[in-house]
Amino acid sequence: MAYTNSPLVDYVKISPNSTNPRNQPISVITIHHMAGNLSVESCGNIFATTDRQASSNYGIGSDGRVGMYVEEANRSWCSSNRENDHKAVTIEVANDDISSGNWHVSDAALSKLIDLCVDICQRNGKKKLLWLEDKDKTLAYNPKPDEMVLTVHRWFANKSCPGDWLYSRL
User: Fold this and answer.
1) Can you name the residues that pair with 46 across neighbouring β-strands?
2) Residues 104, 96 contacting (CB under 8 angstroms)
């Protein structure tokens, strides 16, 4: 399959932390939060070093701008799960309020996250994006050729990511 990248991208800084190419077709979108109010440039700088051994395909700032750090043809190192990352387009979203513990995201970031998910599905020939709300159900589910599923980081690591605020809106 020939992969393309989102035309919604405003900023590009390719991370060395990736596996090139991915070994599975894209059938998953995995949502993360940045655990801070980072710009797409700041997030890109974090992923640009090999010290973190982490990356994502995309990041969204609180201003709604989109950064690309790993091309969709390649696997990001994002979910703490190699198998998921080989199938997933991973998206980090900035948090505009971390004081409450719910990891709130701005309206602009949420709106752009929806736009980016729609774009990813359309470019990959998917007509449905499914949120099954349960890790075991989702991981056992075999998406049809026109479907994609959502996963979250907390299903693969002992983290609250993407935070309760965003999780409740998936």
Assistant:
1) none
2) yes
HEC readout, the chain: CCCCCCCCCCEECCCCCEECCCCCCCCEEEEEECCCCCCHHHHHHHHCCCCCCCCCCEEECCCCCEEECCCCCCEECCCCCHHHHHHEEEEEECCCECCCCCCECCHHHHHHHHHHHHHHHHHCCCCEEECCCCHHHHHHCCCCCCEEEEEEHHHCCCCCCCCHHHHCCC
Would the pTM count as exceeding 0.85?
yes
- Per-residue model confidence as pLDDT tens digits over 123-142: 999 999 999 999 999 999 99
Cα–Cα distance for residue pair 89/140, rounded to 1 Å: 19
Instruction: Judge contact between 95 and 153, C-beta under 8 A.
Output: no
Residue 49 and residue 54: Cα distance in Å, rounded? 9
At 2-42, the pLDDT tens digits run 789 999 999 999 999 999 999 999 999 999 999 999 999 99
